[in-house]
Specification:
Strands 1-2 form a two-stranded parallel sheet. The protein folds into two domains: about 1-35, no CATH class; about 40-90, no CATH class. The chain is mainly α and about 100 residues long. It has five helices and two strands; from the N terminus they run αααβααβ.
């Protein structure tokens, strides 16, 4: 499945090849290209985790269910953990917690 996020669209104007490599890695590699894999930035991982949690909240509320804080926090944390499992580039702003 291809997912196009609004937050990824500004990348396209910078360089369509870079956007394709980041957004459609499986499709590009299926065409025989070898891509360099770089670790995700911690800011991007946090953004993705936030989107996961908010998507969960909105879906649950659309279907008339409660969204306990611990549930959506767990979704966000799991997403962040999954996204940084193979390495992450830390910045000077984001605190490190274990």
């Amino acid at each position: 499945m291809i997912t196009i996020r609004a937050s990824s669209l500004p990348q396209y104007a910078d360089c369509p090849r870079r956007h394709a490599a980041r957004s459609f890695t499986d499709l590009v590699e299926a065409q025989g290209y070898t891509l360099r894999h770089t670790p995700q930035s911690v800011g991007a991982a946090i953004g993705t985790g936030t989107h996961e949690a908010l998507g969960y909240i909105l879906t649950e509320r659309m279907e008339g269910r409660d969204t306990p804080e611990q549930d959506w926090q767990a979704k966000a944390i799991q997403s962040i953990d999954d996204n940084i499992a193979d390495g992450v580039v830390w910045d000077a702003t984001t605190p490190f917690h274990q």
